[in-house]
């Protein structure tokens, strides 16, 4: 009997055929793998959040193998000498064991924490990109709202995780959370009692936060992230305007192989940066805080940075207490306004911004092309205003550390925050709008008159004038014909028009690039650049 | 009534002296009584007054005299003659003890640059010997707490639990101002608790004993000398001798503020450049 020859080259095809025969995967996969994504560095900011979320899941699973969410009192008898013999909860003891006795445990804990900070930071940066470029406009309003909800969920995930080690910092944070719940009129005490299972701190809260932190909130995050990405696939990614790009097409790279490879590479970069930070920078040294005791509150007890704006608002709030003389009397403590109303407003109102803007502009069309920030000055101004507010509030959340390290009076910091919170956002709005208009104006100038060449000519009558290089055709007198403002980059230097050979290669880009259509392998430049000769001394 | 009986004469004599003493006699009598009272009071005071006050012109020891010379040159403007203090400038130093002098002058806080919320630590103006002399002067002038001699930390071989006990005491008494990592913290109106990372054992002990600047006094009734030694042991071993297992950089142990700064300055910055790089490779 003749042995059948195995044709190795045919194996993948055969396997693929076999799979497709059974599962009918080829047609949907082809669509997926051929899907085109526009390419721009700012489109990768959201990916940082996605990838750090993956790191969070991986390191988080590792941590759950060793963490014990129990509030049972034990006497610590572990590797860390400065706490040996101290009474503490089992949760804190297991966090210490995780840090000092589990091999690689401290590194994993730090990776988890840095990844959490990076997750929230990239969400905010990504959100800024989406906002300032108008990527949230119809049809992507829902995805914008989901993004805001993701920030809120991330906020809760971060806070519950911050509370789990049950060290001094965790307990202080929980105490404040309980105070915030108590400040809600009428239902406050019931809310706090039901969450803590009685009086603060009780014996349940770590177990409850644990299940919220490892199951409920990550489940919600995972679901929302899936919808978020699914919508990006379904509605297609927005793109910058430019030659060959319209509201009805997508110019970019296919998902497979280039885009997938790039994404894989970027994932490695994110993973690497998180690991690097976890190895180099110590984060949340829980062993220094000691077990939580209500009487021991360290100075510089701050929440993580993404909660700090709320802490800052609380610090800036004047002590205005409202007494309502009904029955035995109700009190609305000043804490209620920044912590409950403030947080609620700051996380829900932005969700509706796309609708507010569309309504104001009476704009019902779908937009797939982005706008440069300068092309919608009012939106940019509003964004600058919101971010200034957020930054002032966040800095005020750390105002004691800033006051101490920069030798400023803490009281001065508080007042600077109060005044800054009112004065700076409108100022930022005005500045941003003026800068946007100025940039637009300059673009229009170049379109109308051409690029400044730096060549000064003297006319026969003695006048001096600068020669401009028109960007388009000229009329009979040599004056450039006006070009339409297209909301995209206008070359402003002669180098960009090919007046000089490309300069020395930079690390990221050639330092000066001749003008060409925004990079896209699908749309190569129409004409090849002419060859240049090296400039020599002429000998 | 003009009977000449002996009783009547006695009465007349008595009556005359009682009813009409001359002005001169009255004054003389008052002066004599005043003198007697003064002599009595003075005598009693001399007999019973405490020796310390009596020895007003007691000789200072040689080193205290050196200290007095330094004091009269550098401190007298604010703390006044004989360290009695000057209203609105500097407090009296009677009773603050040599521990206080050694802390305030030894860390450069005194002499103060200007009147402000709190004297700042700076390079000391006097060397160790001079500081000791000034301390000696203030000590001999009014007494007060002194830094004990000998080792100010607890040996962990003798008492293995001292480190954990010191940590507990540190968290109860010190972290609310100096912070969990001893990095210092802000107080109200420009006051602050300084970082403990550069403090010597003597300085920490003296600070607890005397409560310099805005620090409360932790007298020997509140924290026994042994407890003070335990706290110093914790600060020395856990906070100063670089016990940061979490990485090369501890970010100053300022808590989440610097961590939040780091994620933007390091993490986001690197990744934005990485994004620029990756997106640029088309």
From TrEMBL, chain A:
It is found in: Cell membrane. The keyword Ribosomal protein does not apply. It is a multi-pass membrane protein. It is an enzyme of class 7 (translocase). Its EC number is 7.1.1.8. GO terms for cellular component: plasma membrane. Residues 15-241 form the Cytochrome b/b6 N-terminal region profile domain. Its cofactor is heme. PROSITE patterns: CYTB_NTER. Residues 528-539 have a biased composition (Basic and acidic residues). It comes from the Bacteria. The chain crosses the membrane at residues 43-67, 114-132, 144-164, 209-234, 265-284, 335-356, 377-395, 415-437. Residues 516-539 are annotated as: Disordered. InterPro entries: Cyt_b/b6_N (IPR005797), Cytb/b6-like_sf (IPR027387), Di-haem_cyt_TM (IPR016174). It holds the Pfam family Cytochrom_B_N_2. It catalyses: a quinol + 2 Fe(III)-[cytochrome c](out) = a quinone + 2 Fe(II)-[cytochrome c](out) + 2 H(+)(out). This is Cytochrome bc1 complex cytochrome b subunit.
Automatic annotation (TrEMBL), chain B:
Residues 62-239 form the Cytochrome c domain. GO terms for molecular function: heme binding; iron ion binding; quinol-cytochrome-c reductase activity. Its EC number is 7.1.1.8. It catalyses: a quinol + 2 Fe(III)-[cytochrome c](out) = a quinone + 2 Fe(II)-[cytochrome c](out) + 2 H(+)(out). It is found in: Cell membrane. It is a multi-pass membrane protein. Pfam families: Cytochrom_C (PF00034), Cytochrome_CBB3 (PF13442). InterPro entries: bc1_cytC-su (IPR009152), Cyt_c-like_dom (IPR009056), Cyt_c-like_dom_sf (IPR036909), Cytochrome_c_Oxidase_Subunit (IPR050597), TAT_signal (IPR006311). It is an enzyme of class 7 (translocase). Binds 2 heme c groups covalently per subunit. Its main location: membrane. The chain crosses the membrane at residues 260-279. Heme c 2 binds at residues 174, 177-178. The cytochrome bc1 complex is composed of a cytochrome b (QcrB), the Rieske iron-sulfur protein (QcrA) and a diheme cytochrome c (QcrC) subunit. This is Cytochrome bc1 complex cytochrome c subunit. It comes from Actinoplanes nipponensis.
């Amino acid at each position: 009997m003749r042995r059948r020859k195995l044709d190795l080259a045919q194996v993948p095809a055969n396997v693929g055929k076999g799979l497709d025969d059974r599962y009918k995967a080829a047609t949907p996969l082809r669509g997926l793998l051929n899907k085109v994504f526009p390419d721009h560095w700012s489109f990768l900011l959201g990916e940082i959040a996605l990838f750090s979320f993956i790191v969070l899941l991986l390191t988080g699973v590792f941590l759950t193998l060793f963490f014990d969410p129990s509030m049972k009192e034990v006497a610590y008898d572990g590797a860390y000498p400065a706490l040996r013999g101290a009474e503490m909860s089992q949760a804190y003891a297991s966090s210490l064991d995780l840090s000092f006795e589990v091999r690689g445990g401290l590194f994993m804990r730090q990776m988890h924490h840095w990844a959490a900070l990076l997750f929230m930071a990239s969400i905010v940066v990504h959100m800024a990109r989406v906002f300032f470029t108008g990527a949230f406009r119809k049809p992507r309003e829902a995805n914008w709202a989901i993004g805001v909800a993701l920030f809120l969920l991330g906020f809760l995930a971060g806070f519950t995780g911050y509370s789990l080690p049950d060290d001094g910092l965790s307990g202080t944070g929980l105490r404040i959370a309980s105070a915030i719940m108590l400040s809600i009129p009428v239902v406050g005490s019931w809310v706090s009692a039901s969450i803590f299972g009685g009086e603060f701190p009780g014996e349940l809260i770590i177990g409850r936060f644990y299940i919220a932190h490892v199951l409920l909130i990550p489940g919600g995050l995972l679901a929302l992230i899936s919808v978020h990405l699914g919508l990006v696939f379904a509605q297609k990614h927005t793109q910058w305007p430019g030659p060959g790009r319209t509201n009805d097409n997508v110019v970019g790279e296919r998902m497979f192989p280039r885009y997938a490879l790039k994404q894989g590479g970027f994932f490695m970069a994110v993973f690497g940066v998180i690991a690097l930070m976890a190895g180099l920078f110590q984060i949340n040294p829980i062993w220094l805080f000691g077990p939580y005791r209500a009487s021991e509150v360290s100075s510089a007890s701050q929440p993580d940075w993404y909660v700090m704006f709320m802490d800052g608002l609380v610090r800036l709030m004047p002590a205005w207490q409202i007494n309502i003389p009904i029955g035995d009397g109700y009190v609305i403590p000043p804490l209620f306004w920044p912590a409950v109303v403030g947080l609620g407003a700051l996380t829900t109102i932005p969700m509706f911004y796309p609708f507010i803007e569309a309504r104001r502009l009476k704009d019902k069309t779908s937009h797939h092309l982005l706008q440069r920030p300068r092309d919608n000055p009012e939106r940019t101004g509003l964004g600058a205003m919101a971010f200034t507010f957020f930054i002032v509030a966040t800095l005020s959340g750390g105002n004691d550390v800033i006051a101490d390290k920069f030798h400023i009076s803490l009281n001065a910091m508080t007042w600077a925050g109060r005044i800054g919170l009112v004065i700076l956002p409108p100022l930022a709005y005005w500045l941003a709008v003026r800068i946007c208009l100025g940039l637009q104006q300059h673009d229009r100038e170049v379109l109308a008159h051409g690029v400044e060449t730096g060549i000064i000519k003297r006319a026969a009558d003695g006048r001096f004038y600068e020669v401009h290089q028109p960007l388009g055709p000229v009329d009979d007198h040599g004056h450039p014909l006006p070009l339409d403002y297209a909301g995209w980059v206008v070359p402003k230097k002669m180098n960009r028009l090919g007046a000089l050979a490309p300069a020395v290669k930079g690390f990221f880009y050639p330092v000066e690039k001749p003008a060409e259509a925004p990079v896209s392998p699908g749309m190569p430049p129409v004409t090849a650049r002419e060859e240049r000769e090296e400039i020599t001394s002429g000998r | 009534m003009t009977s000449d009986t002996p009783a009547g004469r006695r009465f007349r004599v008595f009556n005359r002296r009682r009813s009409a003493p001359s002005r001169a006699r009255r004054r003389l009598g008052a002066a004599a009584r005043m003198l007697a009272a003064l002599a009595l009071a003075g005598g009693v005071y001399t007999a019973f007054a405490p020796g310390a006050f009596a020895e007003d012109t007691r000789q200072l020891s040689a080193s205290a005299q050196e200290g007095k010379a330094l004091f009269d040159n550098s401190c007298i403007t604010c703390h006044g003659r004989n360290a009695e203090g000057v209203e609105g400038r500097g407090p009296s130093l009677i009773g603050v003890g040599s521990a206080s002098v050694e802390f305030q002058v030894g860390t450069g806080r005194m002499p103060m640059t200007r009147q402000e919320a709190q004297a700042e630590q700076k390079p000391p103006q006097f060397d160790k010997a001079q500081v000791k002399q000034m301390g000696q002067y203030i000590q001999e002038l009014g007494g007060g707490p002194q830094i004990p001699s000998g080792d100010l930390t607890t040996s962990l071989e003798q008492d293995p639990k001292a480190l954990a006990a010191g940590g507990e005491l540190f968290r109860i008494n010190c972290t609310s101002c100096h912070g969990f990592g001893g990095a210092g913290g802000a107080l109200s109106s420009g006051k602050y608790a300084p970082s403990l990372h550069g403090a010597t054992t003597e300085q920490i002990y003296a600070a607890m004993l005397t409560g310099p600047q805005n620090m409360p006094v932790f007298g020997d009734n509140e924290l026994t000398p042994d407890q003070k030694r335990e706290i110093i042991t914790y600060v020395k071993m856990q906070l100063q001798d670089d016990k940061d297992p979490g990485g090369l950089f501890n970010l100053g142990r300022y808590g989440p503020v610097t961590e939040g700064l780091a994620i933007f300055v390091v993490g986001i910055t690197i990744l934005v450049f990485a994004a620029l790089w990756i997106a640029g490779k088309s």
